[in-house]
Amino acid sequence: MNVTYDFRSYQEVLAMIGSSFPTSAAVFALLALNVSALDTFLAAVYEHAIILPNKAETPVSQEDALLLMNKNIDILEKAITEAAEKGAQIIVTPEDALYGWDFTRETIFPYLENIPDPQVNWIPCQDTHRFGHTPVQTRLSCLAKNNSVYVLVNIGDKKPCNSRDSTCPSNGYYQYNTNVVYDTEGKLVARYHKYHLYSEPQFDVPKKPELVTFNTSFGRFGIFTCFDILFHDPAVTLVEGFQVDTILFPTAWMNVLPLLTAIEFHSAWAMGMRVNLLVANTHHVSLNMTGSGIYAPHSPKVYHYDMETASGKLLLSEVDSHPRVSPAYPAAINWSAYARTIKPFPIQKNTFGGFISRDEFNFTELYESAGNLTVCQKELCCHLSYRMLEKEENEVYVLGAFTGLHGRRRLEYWQVCTMLKCKTANLTTCGQPVETASTRFEMFSLSGTFETKYVFPEVLLSKIHLSPGKFEVLKDGRLVNKNGTSGPILTVSLFGRWYTKDLLYNSGRTSNSARSYLLISILLMITALQNIVMA
Ligand SMILES: *[C@@H]1O[C@H](CO)[C@@H](O)[C@H](O)[C@H]1NC(C)=O
Ligand SMILES: *[C@@H]1O[C@H](CO)[C@@H](O)[C@H](O)[C@H]1NC(C)=O
Ligand SMILES: *[C@@H]1O[C@H](CO)[C@@H](O)[C@H](O)[C@H]1NC(C)=O
Ligand SMILES: *[C@@H]1O[C@H](CO)[C@@H](O)[C@H](O)[C@H]1NC(C)=O
Ligand SMILES: *[C@@H]1O[C@H](CO)[C@@H](O)[C@H](O)[C@H]1NC(C)=O
Ligand SMILES: *[C@@H]1O[C@H](CO)[C@@H](O)[C@H](O)[C@H]1NC(C)=O
Ligand SMILES: *[C@@H]1O[C@H](CO)[C@@H](O)[C@H](O)[C@H]1NC(C)=O
Question: Its family (predicted)?
């Protein structure tokens, strides 16, 4: 297990110090130091190009379903083995990685296995028949055990229910989008049923959001899936209530510019929540699915975005086991302190309305090559100070503010301040997706009068690149560039979520409102199928 890894590096440091000091002094020096500085682990995530089934109107046989899942597991096996050989202690694989996403309740059924509660203490690799026919769980458990590495995989769970229970589906099973984690012995240590489904008629919503954590010698872990990241439960509660060190996050994320591209939003969430986030996305270029990464609270460690090839990708990075006690841990931020204490810059007369997706923003143009601007919408005022290296004739930037229920579903309350490049020099194109820019900024400072403490700082550069080490958030809530002139900027944003103003915020806390949430979700889903956010 990883203990040997940590122990080895501890001994190496001891040996190093020991060579020039007496041992007792060395031990004393180590104790006096922040020991956590040595306390890291090697994390892996794998972006997987799923082998998809043929589109089927009727269910395939269990044998055919297993055949397809095994083809995908063959590919995951290579990634898991390689990660373990390189010393990884844990690897995350994507949502839907064994079979894709295009199913009805009936056509997904042959892919499902009954997954027991981890409390049963089960090593499927050793005790194969204990819970019936579970070939997928057995193989995954053996992969973890054989390679001595923690493995997270997303699979489908079926739970028999009593037909007299009015919520029990007509086939007699609840069907869940599920993450499982096996430890280095192959033991099932975690099972999480996804709560916030996104256009997934094949799966059921669990009665309550599940708060799933597990402990290892390299920190405490929490789990959720894809769309869950936009909501308070379980995501925020795992970080704040359970004090997890690292979140494992499988996803099938469809990129949406300018604010919700995978690498951009996920790296920002890790910074805003001050937690490690290990993201494994699916790879499917024609659906805009790419973008995985290993994100630390202070900065992205490694990320991958590839719209060119059809290949999967393994990422590895060393991560702090206990980021809260690491010297790099960022200070808490008061997101509105600066914006509330300054005298607002003169409000621009030429403010105009425009759309990002379906959300109506108020925009104002960055007309000069440098300046101080304010734009407001209802309770939210956004301030920007900036100096461009050079104002490009054909590139137009705006400062925008949005506060309100987002999109067509209108369930999530957003507060957003953003500076972005418009698609063309015509101001009616501001907010539309654009992927390239050439304008660099010598200085920018963005802030807003947020009413929420959940704000995620995003910086996205030309050709969909992050900007690690080149920006920071000051304690008073200003998002500023650092270490000199920026790269060419697509957008700089403060993405706020005001959860308590969400429609149905309290859903999931009682089963009645969970049911109404489900009903409303289904109604909204019918109209929301086209795009907006992600899988
Ligand atoms: C794990 O190792 C055992 C014995 O070494 C072998 O029989 C089995 O096929 C391996 N399983 C996997 C999934 O690699
Ligand atoms: C993990 O350890 C903490 C204390 O260190 C404990 O409170 C918590 O219950 C443990 N969690 C699990 C899932 O075992
Ligand atoms: C992918 O993204 C591009 C640009 O952002 C957009 O035009 C296109 O419609 C998206 N494709 C899908 C399938 O959503
Ligand atoms: C944040 O700063 C503002 C302005 O200084 C202050 O009024 C507010 O109380 C602060 N909020 C918190 C949570 O400290
Ligand atoms: C700013 O936004 C509000 C709310 O959407 C809108 O009523 C108002 O007209 C906008 N202001 C301008 C100048 O577009
Ligand atoms: C913006 O404001 C700062 C002080 O708040 C001032 O020093 C600077 O000159 C202003 N910049 C412009 C271009 O007006
Ligand atoms: C900007 O685009 C709008 C909508 O496409 C169009 O009606 C308008 O004429 C354009 N303005 C200019 C100056 O090209």
Answer: Belongs to the carbon-nitrogen hydrolase superfamily. BTD/VNN family.
Does residue 253 contact residue 227 with C-beta atoms inside 8 Å? Answer: no
For residue range 393-452, list pLDDT tens digits in order: 899 999 999 999 999 888 999 999 999 999 999 999 999 999 999 999 999 999 999 999
Name the residue with the closest Cα to ligand 6, atom 2.
372
User: From CA 447, how far away is CA 252, in angstroms rounded?
Assistant: 31
Return the residue whose CA atom lies nearest to atom 6 of ligand 2: 215
C-alpha–C-alpha distance, residues 60 and 271, integer Å: 43
Q: What is the pLDDT of residues 28-37, one digit of tens each?
A: 333 434 444 3
Cα of 265 vs its chain's centroid, Å: 7
* pTM reported for the whole predicted model: 0.89
The total of other beta-carbon atoms located within 10 Å of residue 120's CB is 10
And the tokens for 317? 């990075």
Domain count, the chain: 2
Ligand 2: which of 220, 248, 321 to mutate, judged by most atoms within 8 Å of the beta carbon? 220
The tokens describing 524, both together, are: 């909204």
Give domain status of residue 524, yes or no.
no
The range of the structural domain enclosing residue 29 comes to: 15-325
Structure tokens at 420: 């972005």
Are residues 300 and 267 in contact, defined by beta-carbon separation less than 8 angstroms?
A: yes
Sign of CA dihedral 360, 364, 365, 370: negative
Q: Does residue 41 belong to any structural domain of this protein?
A: yes
Q: For 392, what's the count of Cα atoms within 13 Å in the CB-facing half-sphere? A: 15
Each residue's pLDDT tens digit, 316-358? 999 999 999 999 999 999 999 999 998 877 766 789 999 999 9
Within a domain: 2: no
Question: Do the Cβ atoms of 114 and 132 come closer than 8 Å?
Answer: yes
Q: Residue 450 corresponds to which tokens in the numbers above? A: 């947020």
User: For 19-125, where are the alpha helices, taking DSSP H only?
Assistant: 23-32, 62-85, 105-108
Q: What whole-number distance in Å separates Cα of residue 419 and Cα of residue 429?
A: 14
Q: Which of 372, 444, 480 to mutate to test the pocket of ligand 6 (most atoms within 8 A of CB)?
A: 372
Q: Are residues 145 and 264 in the same domain?
A: yes
CA dist 71 and 315 (Å) reads 21
Q: Which two tokens stand for residue 416?
A: 């957003």
